[in-house]
What does this fold into?
Amino acid sequence: MICSVTDNKLSIEKSDPGRRGLWCKNPLRAKAKLPAALKRKAPLRLPELSEFDVVRHYTRLSKLNFSVDTHFYPLGSCTMKYNPRFNEEAAALEGFAALHPLAHDTCAQGTLELIHDLSARLCELCGLDAITLQPAAGAHSEFTGLLLAKAYFEAKGENRTEIVCPDSAHGTNPATASMMGFTTVNLASKPDGRLDVEELKKHIGPKTAVLMLTMPNTLGIFESNIEAIAKAVHDAGALFYMDGANLNALIGMVKPGDFGVDMMHLNFHKTFSTPHGGGGPGAGAIVCGKHLAPFLPVPTVKKQGDRYVSDFGDSRSIGKVKAFFGNTGVLVRAYAYMLAHSAAEFGDIARCAILNANYVRSLLMDLYPSYSKEYCMHECVLTPGPDMTAKGLKTLDVAKGLLDRGFHAPTIYFPTIVHEAIMVEPTETETKETLDEFVAAMRNIHDEGVADPQKLKDAPHTMPVKRLDEVQAARQPNLRW
Amino acid sequence: MYIPHTKKDKEEMLKTIGAPSFEDLVKQVPSKFLWPKFNLPAESLDEAQSAARMAGLAARNCRPLSFLGAGAYERYTPAAVKAITSRTEFLTAYTPYQPEASQGTLQAIYEFQSTVSALYAMDCANASMYDGASSFAEAVRAAVRVTGRKKIVYAAGVNPQYMDTLKTYFAHSPEYSYVKVPMKDGAMDKAALPALLEGAACLAVQTPNFLGLIEDMAGVSDLAKKAGALLVAAADPVSLGILAAPGEYGADFAVGEGQSLGLPLSYGGPYLGLFSCKKEHVRQMPGRICGLTKDKDGRRGFVLTLQAREQHIRRDKAASNICSNEALCALAATVYSALYGPEGLKELAESNAGAAAFAAERLSAIKGCSLKFKGPFFNEFVLTVPGSAAALREKALARGVDVGLPLAPLYPELGETLLVCATETKTEADILKLEAAIKEAL
It folds into this structure.
C-alpha cells in the first residue's frame, strides 16, 4: 500500500544542470526583440530534469497520498464521495477546455447552454429563483452572498452591520463576515446542538443583516424549528442565508426555498461530486430569491429566442467576484453529474448518505459516544469514550490509528463546541462492506488503545512519516527550496 | 447514479440502526417539507446518452483561430502534465489535514511555493488562490492591513477585471479611495507618482500590463518606499522567463494568473492565483501555506503551517476567509515548470514575444491599421483599426479567425482598437491567416 520512502528528495535536489524535459522550438522566437534593461537578471532556480524524471518524481509523490479512490475518506463536512470518471472526460472535451473566456457569445453557445440548463436545474433543486455560478469555492460563495445582502440593504436605505451565526458554524462564516466589515454575533447552541430560537430573538434586530445557518448543522442535526427561525429572521427584516456545505443530506428530499431561505450556497466539490484535487479547485454558487436577483454578479446567462447570451445586468449588480465567468471546468463536471440523476435519484443520494451515517453511528456509539442522542443526518459527531480518555487517549490518536489501518481520518476537533470531536461523513457512495471494515477498525483502535495506549499515542507506524513537528514548522518557517 | 446500496443492504442497515423505516431517521425534518415535487427530467441519462449530450454541447462551441489574450492565454498542455494531474491519488484527495497520509500533496505544494518564489524572485509564496484577480485583491488587502492606510494607487494598465474584483473585495466601501496613475503611451506615467503616492497603502502595477506593454519599473519601488507605500506587482509567470521579476524591482507582494503555466482556458476557470511576498509579510499571506519540518524520527516531512492566520482557527480574526484553493491547478503548474525548466521557460517567453512581434509587424503594415503605442510589449499589443473594431471582429469570425478583443468598452479613450495576442502556440502561417482575415474584413 505504501511505497518506499528512501527517496524523499525534492525535485530541485534531483536537478542536473543541462537536463531537459520539454522544449519550445517555435521559429518565431528569433523575432523577439526586448530591450536588455527590461530583462530578467536574477537566476531562475527551477529544476532541470528529463520528462521521465518529472513523471517518476510526481508519480512517487502521488503514492504517498490517501485519496477517495484508494481509501475510505470519511472527512466530515467535506463530502468525499466518488468522483465519476465520466465527469473528467466531459470536462476535457476540447470544445469546453479550449474555449477562451472572452470568446464571442456566438462561439460559446454550447457552454452558455450548459450553464443556463445547469442554473435552471439547480434553482429547481433549491426551490429558489436565481443563481450565480461565479464563485470559485464555498467560502467565496459566502462572500458573494454577504455582498448581495449588503447591496440589498443599501438599496433599501438600511444600514445593517451584524451577521448572526451559531457557535457550531464553519470558520469561514465569521471570517467572511469580518472580511466584509460586518460584526459577528455568535449564538451558543442548545445542549441538543440546535440553534436556540429564544436566544436568536434576543440577538436579532434592526442591526442584523443576515443569519448564516448551516443545514443540517455541523453536528449533523437538522434545525427542526426551522420555521420559527425563518420567521424570527424575517420579522427582524433580516435575510436568512443557508450555508449549503451539507446539502448532500437534503438534496432531492426538500427544497430549502420552502423553509424561507433567502439565499444559499452550493459546493460543487461536495454535493455535486467534482473532485477535491488535494484542496481545490472547487466551484460555488449562490442561489437566491427574486428579491436578491438584481444584485447578482455579472455576467449571468440568459436565453434570447434560441440563442444564449451573457447578460451584464444593470448598475445594481455587485460586480465581479472573480475574473471572467467562474470555474467553468468544474461546472461542466457538475452538469455531467446532473444529467446522471433524476429528482428521485437525487433523493436517493440524501437517503443513502443519511442511512450510511446512522449505520456507522449505531455500530460505534457504545465505544465512541455520539454527541447527539438523536439519529443524525449525513454525518455524526463522536468522541473517544471514557475508557479511552482514562488512558490519556485523544481524538488525534484515533485519527492516526485509522491511518495505520488504511482509512483516512474523519474531520477532527470540529465542530469546536464538541470536546474531542470526531466528525464522520461516510457519503452515499460507500458500500455497507466498507462501513463494516471502518467500524471494525474503529473498534480495534479502541481495544488496542485501551490495552496498549502508548502504541496508539505513537501512531502512525506504517505511514511514510511519523507524527510531524508542527511547532518547529511554525517557529522557523521553511516554505521553499 | 453512483449509489451501491441494494434493497437488501438498506433493509439490513435499517435493522442494525433499529429504525423501522427511513422516515424515522429524518423525523427532525418537518414532514410538510419532505419529498416535494421537482420540475426536473423524470429520467436520468445513461452514460452513453450523457456522453452524446456533452459532446453535442462541446461541438456547439466553435473553435476559431484565436488571437484573444487579455488575461487568459492559449497554451499547450503537455501530456505529462495531464498524466500527473489525472493521477487520482492527487485528484481525489482533499486539503492535507492528515499530513502523514498526504505527503504527496504537501510536498507538491512545497515545490509549488518554491516554483512561484523562484519565478517572481520573491522570498515566499502561498499554496494558491482562486485566480489572478483574487490574488491581486488579496495582495492589496494585505498592503492595507500592513500600512493601516486606505488609499490605493493603481496604474491605469492594471487588468480592469482585477480592479473590479478588488473593489468588490472591499465591498465598494467609501472608506477606500482608488487613485489611477495616468497612462502615458500605454504605460504608467512615472512622473505622476510622487504626488499621487502620498498617504497611499500601495502602488499596484501590472507588467506586462493589460494592453501588453512592459512597464519600466526602474526606481518605482524607491518612490513607493519614500511615501511609505508598498509595491504590489502583478506579472504573467511565463513572461518572467525573460522579463525582470518583481523581486528584482523591489515588490513587496507579487501576484499573477497561473493559468499561463499550461492550464486550459476552460471559459475562465479553474485558474490559479499565484501569491508571493517578502519575508516580513509572511504572516499577512492569506490561505494555506505548507512548510518543511521533521517527524519524530528526524525524517523530513511536510505540514500545513502558520495556520493561526486562517479561518478555521481564527474565525472572525482571520487574514482571509479562503478555505479551498486551486491545489490541482498548482500541481499542474509545478509539473509544467519542472518539465520546461529555466531554459524552456525562457524559450516559451521568447517565443511569445517573437510571435507577437511578428504579428505586430504584419498587422501594422495593413493599410489603415497601426500600432497604438510605441513601447516594448510582450505577447499582446493594441492595434488601431479603421472603422468599428467590433464589426471587424464579427466579420473575421465568420471567416474562422478571432482577431482579438475590441477595447472600446473598456478603454473608450483608445478609440477603435483591438487587443491582439499571439502566444507560442501561433505559427507564422497562423499569423498570415490573421493578416488575411483582417484585410478581407476591412
In short: Chain A has 15 helices and twelve strands.
